[in-house]
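G., the chain you wanted modeled:
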Amino acid sequence: MIFTMNCPADYMQQIGYPPILEENTKALADILGYAETLYACNTYQFNDYSRYDFNLFSEEYKRRYRDEHFATDLQNAFQLGQRLVEKAISQQV
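Predicted structure as tokens:
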């Protein structure tokens, strides 16, 4: 399960999202036999913030965060994919 969270990681923890969302991963693991959770936090919501009346976060803040963390988020997703493929291969009968 890859969750793209609009909120920052510390806020996500503070309001208790992980235990709630982890239930989705557990349900998927029950069906498929294995699942993992990955969070991409503080995501950039819109391609053009000027088209929306949205003042909860500033576009500059979101863009700066994305520029600083997007490569890491991509790497984490790639590594998750690798682990899932390795797990699937190791469980082939």
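The mean pLDDT is 92.

Shout if anything looks off.
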